Amino acid sequence: xxxxxxxxxxxELRIRMNExxxxxxxxxxxxxxLKTVNKKLEESEAMKSHFISNITNEIVNPFASILGLSxxxxxxxxxxxxxxxxxxxxIHAEAFSxxxxxKNIFAAAxxxxxxxxxxxxxxxxxxxIKSVTDSFRIEAQKKKVSFESVFDFPESEGSNFQYKTDPExxxxxxSNIVYNALKFSFxxxxxxxxxxxxxxxxxxxxxxxxxxxSDEYQQLIFDRFKRVDTNITSVNRGHGLGLSIIGSLxxxxxxxxxxxxxxxxxxxxxxxxPEFIEEEDSFNSSLNxxxxxxxxxxxx
Amino acid sequence: MDEITEPSTHFLYPSTLFASRxxxxxxxxxxxxxxxxxxxxxWKYGGINHYMLPFWNGQGLASPKFGNxxxxxxxxxxxxxxxxxxxxxxxxxxxxxxxxxxxxxFMIGDRNIAVAKDMLKELKIQIVSQSVGGTLGxxxxxxxxxxxxxxxxxxxxxxxxxxPVSITQKADIYNLFEK
Lengths: 300, 179
Hints:
The complex is a heterodimer of chains A (about 300) and B (about 180).
Chain A: H1 6-74, H2 82-113, E1 121-124, H3 125-135, H4 137-142, E2 146-152, E3 162-165, H5 167-183, E4 190-198, E5 201-208, H6 215-220, H7 242-253, E6 256-262, E7 266-274, H8 279-284
Parallel strand pairs in A: 2-4
Antiparallel strand pairs in A: 1-3, 4-5, 5-7, 6-7
Helix pairs in contact in A: 1-2, 2-7, 3-5, 5-7
Chain B: E1 8-11, E2 17-20, E3 24-30, E4 34-40, E5 45-49, H1 67-80, E6 88-94, H2 108-122, E7 126-132, E8 137-143, E9 149-154, H3 156-162, H4 167-176
Parallel strand pairs in B: 1-3, 6-7
Antiparallel strand pairs in B: 2-5, 3-8, 4-5, 4-6, 8-9
């Protein structure tokens, strides 16, 4: 090996020094990143245990009420049978919320297991929206909240607007939005569901009059398990799973959700869902027509 | 000789995974997404995932939309089906940088590939073959019974149409780079 001159030696040393500084800098930024990730992990772990205790409340409490109430009904005297009505109403309310929570929990479990697929059909949107708002009618009556539906379809669609999408998932998305709208509505207000379509994309908006969601929280609420007001446990129930489910289901359908909230106009959630394109079909059709061609040399 | 039955086909949607001991042909379309195919060389069956983003950042559901979760969940599923870790090999596909965000730092494809390589290395699962990166999308067909994967490169537009990048997904990408 050639002997290095002093200059070359100094140059080499300088290069190496620079490399070290760069590496140190990189290490520092990576460390910073690690710290934030670690913090997130801690938060997530805390939330998880919180989630379990929340869920226990959501399921155990309604069940206890249902059991207690039905026991009471069994011991009611014939003369007091009128009391039964109010108790049955309470049982219905508890069972309704239990059913709703369970549907969400199962949907979330399916999404997290990666076992959720679009099941596409022609959906009568008018009917679907009616069935969603009808299912909330009894709950709405308690707050004296009324529903209004506005349909604005192109003339050519006629009175029955049929749309190619997944009915069950759309129903769950809408139920969650309506559930939220109802939960945060002022008494004796109105919830308006509006449907329209533009360029093969369907829009559904749900508008309610209620507490304003501040800009800061608008960012937060799509997080898993996050509820805007963490203090209230009895008045506004639910475990904040709804919006995460909405997000994942919309992903599956290629859709989107947006939110607008201010004092004058109230709160509006708007979802947009494009007409479903069967990826499976596009998989089976090649660029020039009918069959898939795999390149012979592209077998792994 | 046994009668040879046509294996059923399964179309794998993004954010989902699939594994089975029965023979299946699994089809999927990849752009910047990555699919990790895991194959059990002893029991001769496999599983596949299809994730869109590298890491779950604690927001939304912990679904197999995210690489770190999708890979762990797939391995978990293989273990439930009876695989031993040391018999597993992997093939990885996708991760093209086709997302047109107009910004080079959102090289989501590269980041997706890196997660697969890093995690599999850490898990000591050998990557026996791969076709990753580039600027094109891919159609792949994974034969679960043989472990063979057929591939065809596809044009950008065709992919984007079949696998729309929603605004929520873009928001996720921005979130990833926030800090």
